[in-house]
Amino acid sequence: MLVTALPAPTTVAYEAVIGLEVHAQLRTRTKIFCGCPTDFGAAANAHVCPVCLGLPGALPVLNAEAVQMAVRAGLATGCEVQARSVFARKNYFYPDLPKGYQISQADQPVCVAGHLDIGDACRLDINDGASGAPRRIGITRIHLEEDAGKSVHGEGGVHASFINLNRAGVPLIEIVSEPDLRTSEEAVTYLRELRAILVYLGVCDGNLDQGSFRCDANVSVRPVGQQRLGTRCEIKNMNSFRSVRDAIDYEIARQTALCRVGERIAQQTRLWNQELARTEPMRSKEESHDYRYFPDPDLLPLRIDEAVFRALAATLPELPAQKRTRLQRDLGLSAAVAATLCEEPQRVDRFEAALGTNPDPKQASALAHFLMAQVAGALNRMEQRSWDDVAAAMPELLTLCERWRSGGLSNKMLAEVLQQAFLSENPLPDALLAAMAQAGSVVRDEGAVQAAVDQVLAAHPKELQRYRGGQTQALGFFIGQVMRRLAGKGDAALVTDVLKRRLDG
Question: Model's pTM, two decimal places?
């Protein structure tokens, strides 16, 4: 019997090389080449017409609003906006592609050679080492294209597939990065910053759940020090930042393990299986020539005058990096707090509106933490509520924050006030303050708290024995029971202090 020895595992150190392709749906009122609406959630195939269905004789007409949004995205990411770009037909078969090709831009996109800086004030300390300079990630191109439809498999228990073409023809920009990223954390930081920029510009709503902002990752590995790129695999089906991080980490580990035992990496498109936490092969990776690009004969080359560049540049808002820097400089906020505040423009707008024209740095820090913890928590507990609702419902946000911090509102009462404010159709400052007054006052009488503690300890001797036997996690149980006896109005710090003294004494 002939036995072939496997190659011995190597001890070579490997590094990952990552490039991202982001598809961002533009917030236009109509599709890119026809007048069909782009609203999400309509009945299947309700927003279609001969153009987006690809019927014979239907001619596309370019949406100028989509072009303007693409240019603004390019200007905000340091791109060179091309005076002339060309639309092409990208030919491939897929059931939800009604024309049998996708109108996109190939060799002559609308924007090229941009960049995005990460690490300056983001969640992570990503820099070039001792210099502390932020990492600059290159952007190869930004191009315009139309979206495809959507295949729906096995809906309602039916063993069949359905096609919904509402999304076909919705305008997209594809933002292709250089392979400058090295870790999953860098990739997520890049995506967060890019998403924030597009949301600030108003060109994309950034909704990952609905697919308005989605990403494919090209991942390869190579020995540290080698300049030549390894064989890359493209990962699809990632609908959250966590999925992006986990999928990239898995793929890096998979490819590194193959390289260490001398196996060849196949160039593939792979899907991220969230349930099994692994990437799985989908198909062999196509090259650009497989798509047989050629200029679309129905669309003239797109020309943009320099005057249009200047006019659109003048409409750019203060971008996230600029706003983070200003908040840290003027209000003394930490980099982490400023980064979290500035992820959503509505959140930081509400923060600045509540502070007023002469903000106090101490108030600013307290309000920032209040927004990120208490108000964000209330929003997460309620369906169909966003930071836009905070702007409408909370005209006395700073007053509410100070009342809570001073002990005038317990956590339970605060949650009730926030819920009432968000459920009201047109709340007024007086109505909010009245709701606060009706909530009652916090119990700070130590005698009353001690009495409640004694009653709880007497009623739960087994839990008391377990705590004193070393199961100190039972403290949370006792706190909950005392707060219940005080109708949720006990001062949390005082309740905890009294309990610990009695339990440990």
Answer: 0.78
pLDDT at 5 over 70: no
Rounded CA gap, 243 and 48, in Å?
32
Helix or strand holding residue 302 (H, E): strand 302-303
Mean pLDDT for all residues in the chain: 83
Instruction: Report whether 33 contacts 61 (CB < 8 A).
Output: yes
Nearest CA among 66, 46, 458 for reference residue 299: 66
Block residue for tokens 């949390």 = 492
CA distances from 54 to 61, 212, 235 (A): 13, 23, 29
C-alpha to C-alpha distances, 109 to 174, 183, 217, nearest whole angstrom: 10, 28, 20
* Alpha-carbon distance values, 116 to 77, 195, 199, 204, 309 (Å): 6, 11, 15, 17, 20
pLDDT confidence bin for 131, thresholds 50/70/90? very low
**Residue limits of CATH 1.10.10.410 in the chain:** 446-504
The per-residue pLDDT for 438 is 56
User: What fold characterizes domain 446-504?
Assistant: Arc Repressor Mutant, subunit A (1.10.10)
Q: What 3-state DSSP class applies to 239?
A: coil
Q: Which residues of 297-319 are buried (b: 16+ CB within 10 A; e: fewer)?
A: eebeebebeeebeeebeeeeeeb
Q: Does residue 430 have a pLDDT over 90?
A: no
Instruction: Give the rounded percent of residues in the chain with a pLDDT score beyond 70.
Output: 84
Spatial contact of 328 and 364, defined as CB atoms under 8 Å apart:
no
